[in-house]
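User: For a benchmark we're assembling, each entry needs the component sequences followed by a predicted structure for the full assembly. Here are entry 17's components. Please fill in the structure.
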Amino acid sequence: MEGFGTKILFEIPILGGIPLTETVVNTWIIMAILTIFAVFATRRFDKIPRGIQNVVEAIVDVINKFTAQTMGEDKKGFSAYMGTLFLFLLLANLFGLFGLRPPTADLNTTFALAIMTFLIIHTNGVRRKGAKKYLKGFLEPFPAMLPLNIIGELALPISLAFRLFGNIIGGVIIVGLLYGGLASLSGMLGITFIPVLQAAIPVVFHLYFDLFAGVLQTFIFVMLSMVFISMAMD
Amino acid sequence: MGKKSHPLQNLALISHIGILMIVPILGGLYFGRWLDKKFNTEPIFLFLFIVVGVASSFVNLFKVATKDTPQRKRK
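Assistant: Structure for entry 17:
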């Protein structure tokens, strides 16, 4: 039986072949969906919103309000980053529902997002507090705490990345095993022409692992990014 | 400081505490083992960095837990 790692779909035949995994291709699909939505939904804006403009305005409004509420009015500018993160993660985590592999079931994707948040935390910490006060923050409450503070800061992106990755890959593995088990069970029962068992039973698991855990982890990732960025800036 | 934060925000932080405490300890373990292999000093660095990791995870916990309490002015 093959493992649950990402499969290499094809290779770009330059520079000795660049392998493209499922993760990359599925990320491209998500990028395409979001780009097309952004272009076509914002094509023609009226003063009185109509049709899809209502949806767009609702999304933007909710994200703006949520960012302002969590981070404070002065850090409302982060709503662009948070909104991007939210929409991307939401689509990525829900990709399992379409039978495709979610890009967030790859540690590379989650680490990339966590490192982005990490860099934003520290650049904005320096910008808001000034380099001297920022560096002094590592020596508090007393200078011997320096290694502990550095390890503590480094632990943040790692824990963010692993938590998201772990939740999503767990769902992928369990649902994958379930499909395999149901296929062999229906083989034993002699129902091979129609996948009866695979049609109904996994719904509950999809509901929990893809829908519930996916939306929850999206929300938690965005929320923690907001909390830690505003903590670094206060 | 001292402002009340949103309940959902606190829920997200609570669910983060567990993994935030594990990561420095495991990081210390692997880093210490790597240093031991490099300098052939088993198991000095392993123990040293596990202790540092435990201390660091408690510092993290303390920081998250006291996020909303107003800080007294030092100096």
